[in-house]
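This part of the workshop introduces the protein records we will be handling. The question running through the whole workshop is how a given chain folds. To make this concrete, we reproduce a full record directly below:
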Amino acid sequence: MEGSRAEVVILISGGIDSAALLNYFIEDNFYVRALFIDYGQKASIHEYASARKICKYYGVKLKKLSLKNNKDFGPGEILGRNGFLVFSALMHSEIKSGFISLGIHSGTPYYDCSKLFVDNVNNILLGYYGGQILLTAPFLNWTKRMIFDYCAITGIPLSLTYSCENGSNPPCGVCPSCIDRGVLDVQ
């Protein structure tokens, strides 16, 4: 931890939610680290490029973790993804106390984007870390529209973000992330 500021490791994907999360904790005067995890997702090259641009814009150190596998992850829900990301961050980051943070929000039907998931993970973390490290998801009760509005109000550079689960360039326009961006009129 730098000085007396609380520390947070942001799991950054290069998308709107994690860019907003980075800004949120910087504005709240946290010592912020960012971690990008390439777990074999189709969009990893474009996501990582966006994560780098966002972190450079904010002056935040970005660490990348690459894990090899033979699984083909398509668009939509990836069972276990957020749990995997949180526990990978715990194993591979330098955090000793503070928070691991995800940009999950309301309106997503997946278990690992729910309050129950956050509570369950925090129960496990209490066993491991005795309350020294916890999972936080400040946008858990926010809609995607609320996150987008927060980005507009605070001047988050959405042009640096990337959101396409198929990894297309230009984005495919039909995956759930592209649909979200289109509904929000994000270019």
